[in-house]
Amino acid sequence: MNWDDLRVVATINRTGSFTRAAALLEVDETTISRRLARIEATLGITLFAASHGRREPTEDCRRILRHLAVMEQASEEIGAILTAPSAAQRRLRLSTIGAIAHFYLAPALPELLEAEGELALSIDISDHNIAMSRWEADFALRLGRPSRGDFTVRRIGMLQFALVRPSDPDVSPLLVAYPEVLMETPEMQALRSLLGDIRPRLETSDLGLTRRFLASGRGIGVVPDRLARTLAGNPALEIEPLEVTRDVWLLSQPHLRDDSLARSVSEWCTRQFASMPPQSKV
């Protein structure tokens, strides 16, 4: 089997589609289908099965993908060296939610990138869990521990939360909360226990928007304490720490376990959730 065949397998896995794989590899869909059939015949195994409109890797395929990810990474690094020998970089991909990216990672990103000159970090922000089994990311930071998966999982810290509300007792605050689908999260349950079943006037999972709304001094809501700290100097607000937390989990691809650059990224992520002094009431 040659590298071009392996690239076909990797691209089908990444895209979940013959059509999208063909577009990325700049061939037609028939060629992708024919090449995959030849690869499967050579190996004597089925690599992908159709499921809910996607091509999902079989267990046999997943065993191949573990090694293929290492080969793809090496190929990218060799390509970088050949195209720009004096500025070769390795690209690692991290997936997380907006709250973590903006309020926990972003302030310390220069520290990481200056310390690791060969690192090019790609951060994907999404409220939806990426598929680590499809190698869509090298790392992921999540607020829930996955029940299963072929990757390493480690608890690296927790998010604490605070209630932000107007300091003026004459203001009737407008409630901001997550959309209904996220109301079972611990922070929204804490908000409900404090305020009862008051209907939110603003529903959003975008904490950047929530921050601006609360900064007006007219809103009330629960946010991560790191976000609350950015509002602490606002005299129109009162900030009250809550006894509600969510664990932060770091997911890593298993082939990166002994990789020194990946270890640096992992340790950097962990430092961002080191214990901080409790938020005082403002």
Automatic annotation (TrEMBL):
This is LysR family transcriptional regulator. Residues 1-58 form the HTH lysR-type domain. Belongs to the LysR transcriptional regulatory family. It comes from the Bacteria. PROSITE patterns: HTH_LYSR (PS50931). Pfam families: HTH_1, LysR_substrate. Keywords: DNA-binding, Transcription, Transcription regulation. InterPro entries: LTTR, LysR_HTH_N, LysR_subst-bd, WH-like_DNA-bd_sf, WH_DNA-bd_sf. The lineage of its organism: Bacteria, Pseudomonadati, Pseudomonadota, Alphaproteobacteria, Rhodobacterales. SUPFAM superfamilies: Periplasmic binding protein-like II, Winged helix' DNA-binding domain.
